[in-house]
Every structure is written in C-alpha cells, then in structure tokens.
Amino acid sequence: MKKLLLALVILMVAMAFVTTGCKSxxxxxxxxxxxxxxxxxxxxxxxxxxxxxxxxxxxxxLNIDVTFVPVGRWSEGTDMVNLMASMSAPDxxxxxxxxxxNSFRDQGGILNLAPFVDRYLPDLKILLGEDTxxxxxxxxxxxxxxQTGHIYSIPSYRVALAQRNVFVRKDWLxxxxxxxxxxxxxxxxxxxxxRDRDPGNVGRNRVVPFGVNSDVRWGLANLIQPSIxxxxxxxxxxxxxxxxxxxxxxxxxxxxxxxxxxxxEGLIYRDFPLMTVADxxxxxIKSGVVGAFCQNWDLPYRTDYNIIGDLRRxxxxxxxxxxxxxxxxxxxxxKDMFDKAGLRIFIPSFSxxxxxxxxxxxxxAKPENYQFIQIGHEGLNxxxxxxxxxxxxxxxxxxxxxxxxxxIDITMPMNGIELGSTELNAxxxxxxxxxxxxxxxxxxxxxxxxxxxxxxxWQATTTVNQYDQTLQTKADDLITQAIxxxxxxxxxxxxxxxxxxxxxxxxxxxxxxxxxxxx
Length: 519
What we know:
Blueprint: H1 2-23, E1 27-35, H2 49-62, E2 64-72, H3 76-85, E3 93-95, H4 98-106, H5 117-120, H6 122-128, E4 154-158, E5 164-169, H7 170-176, H8 184-197, E6 208-211, H9 216-219, H10 221-224, H11 234-239, H12 252-264, H13 278-286, E7 290-296, H14 307-314, E8 320-323, E9 335-336, E10 341-346, H15 354-364, H16 367-375, E11 382-385, E12 388-391, E13 414-415, H17 422-431, H18 438-449, E14 452-453, H19 468-484, H20 490-516
Parallel strand pairs: 1-2, 4-13, 6-7, 9-14
Antiparallel strand pairs: 3-10, 4-10, 5-7, 5-8, 11-12
C-alpha cells in the first residue's frame, strides 16, 4: 500500500512538472495594430501602457506572448499588400477594406475560419449576436460563403451606426435672421446668402459657403445621395454598389449635376481638389470662413480635432449645428448610415499560430477585457457620471493616452463602447465628448440616423475584386471632374468618365453581381 501511495505521489509530481514545463513555454502571437503616428500626444502605437497591460494579462490568462505589429492607418493598403506578399503579415489582422480581404482570399492568402468558430470563439459569437441585416443569422457568420460555408473574415460590429452630418454655422444664420433650413431649396438659399451677405464679416473674397476637401465623394455625400431613386430595390442597391461607390445608381448623376451648378455659382469651395491634407481642411473651418460642411457625424465635437474649441478662439460666439435639409424626390431626407459590420478580422493562411490568434480574439470578446481597454483607469481615462463612464483625455504624452477614439484600434470585435445594453451605450456615447452638453451629441446622432439606411447586404462570394482600387480612384476622379466642369460640358464629362469606368472593370463587376443576386 505504501509503495502504491509513493508511486502515485511520484506520478503526480511528474505530471505537475510536465504541466509546469508546458506553461514555461508560452505560445507566440503577432497582432496587427494601426499606427496613427505620434501627433497630438499619441504614444507609439505598438509600445505603450495599453499594449503592456494586454501582454501581461494575456500571458497570465492564456499563456500567450503577444507582439504587436504596427501597420500605417493611412498607408494600410500598401503596407498590408507588402506584408501579405512577403508572408510576414501578423497572425491576426484587420482592415476596413473588405475588397482587400476578398483579394487576399482569392489568392489563397487567408485561412478558412469555419472549422474553428464553435470551439475557439464562443464568447465572440455571443458578443456579436444576431445579424440585423439578415434575419435569423448570427452575425459571426456574416461573411460566410453561402455555397461552401467557408469564413475568411469575421466582422466587428459598430455600436453607433451614425455616419455623416451636414453642419451649418448657427451664428451666421442668426446674423442673417434665417431659420434653420429644412429642405433643399432653403439650404441652397442659405448658401447664396452666405456668399452674398458675408454674415461672418470675413470678407467677400474669403467666405466659403460650403467647404469640402479633395475627398469630395465623402464630403458631398449627404448632398448627392438623396438624388438616388428612392424606390430602388435592395437587389439593385447591392448590384450597383461597385467598389463601395454609388455612381452607377439611378439619380446619382443628377445629384452630382446639382453640385456642379452650386460649384459654378461659387457656393462650394473652388480649390477643393488641392486640399489633400485633412488638417488643412479642418484649419480652414477653424479659421471661421466656412459656413457649412459635411463630414463624420460628430466631427465638430471630437476632442482630438477640437473644431469648435479652436474656432471659438478665432470667433468667440461661433457654433456649428447639424441640419437635416437635403431632400429626395419624395421629400424625405434620405441618407446613409453604417452597416452593423465594421472592420474585418482575418488570419493569414501562412500563420503558424492561428490557434493562438483565435484564443486571443475570443479573449478580446470578454467584458472584463474589452471594457477596460475601452474606458481605462477611473480618474485618468474616465470618470463615473450618473452611473456610466464619461471618457476623459489623458494628458498628451501620458503612457495611457488613447491613440484612437475609445481604443477602437485595439478592441477588434467592436467599434464603440459596449456596456451591455442599448440604453447604457447611448448614455456613455453622449458623455464621451468633453465640454459639450450630452443633449448636443444625442441630437447630432439622431440627426445623422434619421431616415438613414445602411448599404444593402447579399451573401455571395464575389471573385471580380481585382479592380476595386482602380474603380474607386476613377469614380472619385469622375465626381471631381464633373463638379468642376462648365455646366454645358457636364454631360460630356460625366458620360465619358462613366464609360471609361465601366471599361476599367466596373462592367465585369456589375455582370457578376447581377448573376449572383437573382431577381
């Protein structure tokens, strides 16, 4: 009996030694992180207090050593293509560019995740929940091929779906005695008054009724999109959305024609093609010469850009308010909002650590992990206000400075603060803009999503994706050229550019999409 007990003790010690030995050799994992530079007090993207916290906790929880690999936020396309081509991409990657994912997939560069979902991603499946665009489908399967069931990317979800707003100088309206515009004609008359009456006293030769930079496709979207046929079917909305551009949709040309008219009347900033640096555009707004513009739904209130704060240093009583004025043919202020799907998460097929990547991704889906990454330390990154956290900015250069809003570059499964309920999420969103009444933020959000809808979704695997970058560039160039053309030349410029766009691959994309989505 004693010999048996001794043998059992020896066996248990040996097993403990083996187990301890295994734990002493952690798995290795590389994870992508967007690098947004160090301007504005940002820390080094892959080497800061947030990264250290994650490394320590993942090592303790999963016995995985994480190394973060920086990828330029604004050079992402080139950087990721180079990393994938050299087979040196991180084990866990993400991008907002689904077309790029599809291109990597078509070249055999992405791992099929379908066999791993149930075993390794249970918490992520629960967190992502149902797909609001496809009834009865779990969101984790949004990108699954309907024929094979293969999953080459998993979408994160957007907590807030607002996309863009048109903002107007309320103090200029007050100086003119004009009401907030509620339809397209009133908005046009407002811009004319800005041009002719210079309510900001900035000088007739300096006033910019409507400001926009070189990304005119985005900066005029809320003015052009309402011209798209309001009765277009979801099928055609999907088929005609080529390379994330809407120029093929019925009515888009006429919306651009209206912008051409406004441009030639001096209502739109004349040199917008030359304004390629975002900060130059923001500085123009802050200088006080811009009467209206269209950008991200919350741009004037964001602390990282400080649009209104800097503007008021130049013009003390200045204010921008969101307006809901550009109407479609049926009188509705139709506009876009984001689909629930945000960035796409994928694992390169050549990754030797794909299981560690999956385990880390599931770790990110646990509330005790992602909530700290989102809100950080009380007293430094947030304070509790009426039961919910209000984000506060750590001082520039502080190790806990947040490089991206709500640390969205780190919290891969979601974009936005997730506290477990729609009510709490809305309350914390409104508190996340220091110095502004939460009601101002709520109003901007509601204005942006009013009468808005996301792009149509269809579960089909497209193979004609190699033209995406070319088609995006050509579509954007066409919009720019058409807006700047003489009114008499508008149709010639548009029709020639559109034909070239079709011949550059768009027709091939349209043909495939039409075949994939039955009538």
